[in-house]
Amino acid sequence: MYLIFGAGGHGHVVSEILDLLKLHPFVFVEERKFGKWGNIDIIKFNPSDVNENDMAIIAIGENSKRKRLSESLSIKYITAVHPRAIVSQKSVLIGYGTVVMAGVIINPQAKIGNHVIINTAAVIEHECVIDDYVSISPNVTLCGNVNVGQGAQIGAGAIVIQNIKIGKWAIIGAGSIVIKDVLDYEKVVGNPAKAI
Questions:
Q1: From 10, 82, 115, 126, active-site residue
Q2: What is the distance between the alpha carbons of residues 173 and 196, in angstroms, rounded to a whole number?
Q3: Rounded Cα–Cα distance for residues 4 and 28 (Å)
Q4: Which of 84, 87, 140, 164 is deepest in the core (most CB within 10 A)?
């Protein structure tokens, strides 16, 4: 059984990827709601019900919540890469629990951590390193050799030029153009991106 933790919008996208990859059967697992979404069961979350043979993916967009849940469960995590993503086959490393959406491009020697979300049409260029629990929003472009620290959030349409370091748990505002390093926990917005 494949468990999708989270039955919100992100969970629905993950369920389509699992369906396309023919990873069946799967169910949504939720804390507050249960029943059905379409023809997919939503079961109430109870940690004692998790079977060590189950496989899971955490489909929760909030990075810190995804981290907490992943650390609280003893379960095997899968990686879900949409069949319409373009991923260099020879040298890209993608960690467990990571989701790669349709239209994403990941070029050679990129390293993607665990429980990362790479949203629709994002471009991850050569030699980028993305740490665990990062969320890359739709249409983000990371030019070559960008390093993104744990838990960072990069907003929709942001562009990060080559050789930039983004600190852990930093937030890059939507549409920002990042031309210099971003510190840990820093929030930046604009063109060029500046701390707020």
A1: 126
A2: 10
A3: 5
A4: 140
* 45 lies in the same domain as 83: no
This prediction has a pTM of: 0.93
Q: How many domains does the chain have?
A: 2
Sheet bearing 123-124, strands edge to edge: 86-87, 105-106, 123-124, 141-142, 159-160, 177-178
Q: What are the pLDDT tens digits along the chain (196 aa)? A: 899 998 888 999 999 999 999 998 888 887 766 676 677 777 777 766 677 788 999 999 999 999 999 998 888 999 999 999 999 988 999 999 999 999 999 999 999 999 999 999 999 999 999 999 999 999 999 999 999 999 999 999 999 999 999 999 999 999 999 999 999 999 999 999 999 9
Q: Which domain holds residue 14?
A: 2-77
Side-chain half-sphere exposure of 176, counting CA atoms within 13 A: 23
Pick from 142, 143, 146: nearest CA to 181 = 146
Q: Which residues contact 87 (CB under 8 A, 6 or more apart)?
A: 81, 94, 100, 104, 105, 106
Chain-centroid distance of CA 117 in Å reads 1
Whether residues 10 and 37 fall in one domain: yes
Q: C-alpha distances in angstroms, 159 versus 28, 69, 76, 190?
A: 33, 30, 33, 11
10 catalytically annotated: no
